[in-house]
Amino acid sequence: MTGAVRPTHVTVVLPVADLGAAVAFYRALLGRGPDEEPAPGLAEFELRPGVWLQLSTGDAAPEVLLGVDDLAAACAHAASVGAAPSPVAAEGPVCWSTLTDPDGNRLALVQLTTD
Hints:
Helices cover about 20% and strands about 35% of the residues. It has about 120 residues and is an alpha/beta fold. It is elongated, with a radius of gyration of 15 Å.
């Protein structure tokens, strides 16, 4: 499908109340610890190449992050199919736009940028 969003990677974000307990559970379930702990309150498990589970404390909401190579094109395509992407935000080497599907599930289109 021309113009379709083609994710380069996928991250499922799960909010957790107690990161230590959540990491212990997933460590037992998956047989290993997290691959990354990129910031306080975050732990990430790479389930297979390009597929990540992120455990997050704080005000995180369940969310699916779809990595893309061209955020502007992905947002334009999302808008063309009836989604309403948010204005692009950026922090460090990451920029993103959020939207919801027809059932209200939160998605984020994410692009890594180079400095």
